[in-house]
Every structure is written in C-alpha cells, then in structure tokens.
Amino acid sequence: MLMRRPGFARAAALAAMIAAAILAATPETDPTDGRPAWRFKQIADGVFFATGTGAMTTMSNSLVIVNEDHAMLVDTTVSPAAARKLVAEIRSEVTEKPIRYVFNTHFHFDHSHGNQVFGDEVEIIAHEFVRRQHTADVGRQRTNRTFSAAIPGQIEAARARVTAATDQVERTRLQTDLRIREAHWNAIQETAVRPPNITYRDSMKVVKGGREVRLHFVGRGHTGGDSMIFLPAERIVFTGDFLVGSPGVHGLPYMGDAFVNEWPASLGGLKALDFDIIVPGHGTPFRERSQITDLQAYLRDLWRQVSALRAEGLSAEDAVGRVDLSAHAENYGDRARRVDPRAVVRIYEVLQIQHPL
After folding, report:
1. In whole angstroms, how far apart are CA 328 and each of 34, 317, 348?
2. Among 137-146, 164-173, 312-321, the least confident range
3. How far is the C-alpha of 197 from the C-alpha of 114, rounded, in Å?
4. Are 259 and 220 in contact (CB under 8 A)?
5. Can you say how many angstroms the Cα of residue 300 is from the centroid of all Cα atoms in its chain?
C-alpha cells in the first residue's frame, strides 16, 4: 500500500488552485497558427507513419491505413484537440476517404484520449482490457493523474523562463513553448474518455477495403492489454509502447503500469510475428529485431534485482538507489544507470500481489 506523505493534502490543494488559475487564462486549444501539427511518411502502399511536428502537444505516434473506400487509424493521440487536428490533416495531406476503423494499442491517455472525436459510425477496436480501463474511473488512474498533475507546475516554470529571458529570439521561442503547454492544458479539460466499442481477447482479424489487419495480444507487458497491430501483407507491426525506439536507438518504455516479470515472454510473442518494420508508439520506424532481445535482457535483470532488494526488506524508495543496470549501458546509455522510480514502485506492487509480506 502506498502511503501519502505529510503535507500531501496541502500540496494537492495548492496544485488545484494553480491549475484553476491556469485554466482561466489558457488560450484556444489549437496553438499552431495554421502550422502543420503532424508529418506523414509513407512506409508502404497506403500506409503512413504519423508523428508530431511540435506545433502542438501530440505525445505519441499514429498509423494511417488507406484502403479502397475508407481509412483506418491506429491510436488517437493525447487529446480531442490533437485528434481533431490529426483527422483534419489526414484529410488534407493523406486522403479524403472517411476514417471508419480506429485501433487503440492500449489504454494510456496519450494513445486513446482522442477517441471521442469519432462518431458512432466509426468502429473503435482494442483489447478487452482497454475497455475495462476506459470504463473505470479514469481520473483516478495513476498514469493519467500523475502526468496531468505535473502540467500546471510545468506551465508556471515556462512562464518564469519567459519572464527571465533577455534575448528576444529566445524569448519568442519560450513564448511559443508556453502557448503550446497552456493550450494542451486547456485541451485535456474537455476529455470524455470514449471506450472501444469492439473488443477481443487473444487475436482478431479485420479484412476490409482490400486490406487485412490483425490484432494480437501476445501477453501482458507495458500494460495488461497491449495490442500488436500487424499488417501481414506489408510486414509491418505497430507496437504502441510495448516496444519503442528508433533506428539504432534503443527505447525504454514507461513501466508504471507494467508487468515486468511477464513482459520478456510476451516480447517473444512479438518476435514470432513475420514482420520487417516495427512502428513504435514513441520513436520512429526501425527494423532491428535485436532491440527486442535487448529489452528482454534489461527487463529480466531489472525484475531480478528489484525482487532481491525487496526480499532484503528494502523499501521501494531505497531500492531505487541500489538498482544497477549499467551492464545495459551500451544499449540504453545513462538511462540504464538511473532506473525510473515508477518502475520500481510498480514491481513492488506486482510482487506484493504474488508474495505478500
């Protein structure tokens, strides 16, 4: 059980006051001034990788699949405003065909909180775990709550940087950054989480408009319900946050809701798919299957070390300073030397369920 530290209520009240003040002062939810918020790269016939340009807060990647009479979208980004911008730019830059199918790789806010911009005519498809999470009290979900709670402080810090800037070029850049942050805070206030209306448990095949798309749940990992969105003819797999990275750059996924002990075996299920290109939820498309093996090794080592430290009686907070993953520095650099405390806390939670103290 996680205990709240003294002063938590006072800090929460102060954060709420700051948030209210920021919300009252925020501008419109589209801060782009007509600039593109997304860039699209064709990676196969009718398949486009979509990633943010930085003109507004988007946070995660998407995949656009253009078929004979409609389009499909994988992941709906971080907010309704970002999703509306994505849909508009798909229409102007990629295809005017209507989006009829949406796939959520997992339940996290930065991949699914744009669902609400789609009407009832659009099928939103995901693992059954995603629907359970979306129909629960989303505001209480730790990942959504903690990331959102940090935004008011980030805005206050950004305002301070603008005030302190003396160089006009730098000040203009900082003002743009502040406007983007404020617009994002405003955008997330309108979020009304829309769960998927079609779910599956193990695998699902969708054959529409001359295209075959397969959804595979290969096991618990980044969350309890990650989907691999697999295009068998194109040999492309969209992994969401189950596996992230870029060509030659290893990614370390967020582990705050993870099942680190099961993840390596689940990654083996990803390896079994017959693909050439990995499209991650964060990063850029890459081909190195070795990154799967490297993440398996990192996760096994992390689980082993944290499990041993808990068995010694250390708290999760104290264990963070004792974890040494420098053996993986060749792949993960400094990130291997500074373990994410949220990963350690999550491992302790899973271990508590399996082996109560």
Report:
1. 43, 22, 22
2. 137-146
3. 14
4. yes
5. 22
Residue among 94, 83, 75, 91 at smallest CA distance from 57? 83
**Nearest alpha carbon to residue 263 among 294, 287, 231:** 294
Tokens of 4: 């709240």
Q: What is the pLDDT of residues 142-185, one digit of tens each?
A: 899 999 999 999 999 999 999 999 999 999 999 999 999 999 99
- Closest to 57 in 3D by CA, of 185, 157, 221, 204: 185
* Pairwise CA distance, residues 271 & 223, whole Å: 18
The yes-or-no verdict on residue 356 having pLDDT over 60 is yes
Tokens coding 238: 């969209």
Beta-sheet pairing, 47-52 with 203-208: unpaired
- Sign for the pseudo-dihedral over CA of 332, 336, 341, 343: positive
SS3 content of the chain, % helix, strand, coil (to 5): 45, 20, 40
User: Are the CB atoms for 76 and 84 separated by under 8 Å?
Assistant: no
Instruction: Please report the pLDDT score of residue 28 as a whole number.
Output: 57
What Å distances lie between residue 228 and 6, 104, 220, 253, 271, CA to CA? 42, 10, 12, 15, 11
N- to C-terminal Cα separation, the chain: 11
Give 265-275 pLDDT, tens digit per residue. 999 999 999 99
Encoding tokens for residue 246? 């870029």
Q: What is the pTM of this model?
A: 0.90
Nearest residue to 290 via CA among 304, 274, 271: 271
Assigned token pair, 41? 């790269």
